[in-house]
């Protein structure tokens, strides 16, 4: 794999998207654990 600026930028973007996704999932898990009446915690995998 060549370390081009484009590849580095796309890798950085992918890592950022992964962080956003992880934060969203963590927030969803916290929300589901505190509010059980959302209906999203049943089979939301």
Primary descriptors:
45 residues; mainly alpha; 67% helix; rod-shaped
Please give a structural write-up.
Helix content is 67%, strand content 0%. With 45 residues, the protein is mostly helical. The mean pLDDT is 83.
Instruction: Supply Rg.
Output: 16 Å
Can you count the beta strands?
A: 0
Order of helices and strands: H
- What structural class results from the helix and strand content? mainly alpha
In helices, the fraction of residues equals 55-70%
Percentage of β-strand residues: under 5%
Give the overall shape, derived from the CA principal axes. rod-shaped
Q: How many H/I helices?
A: 1
Gap from first CA to last CA: 33 Å
Largest beta-sheet characterization: none
Low-confidence stretches: none
Mean pLDDT: 83
Explain briefly what this protein structure is.
The chain has one helix at 5-34. With 45 residues, the protein is mainly α.
Set out the fold topology:
Blueprint: H1 5-34
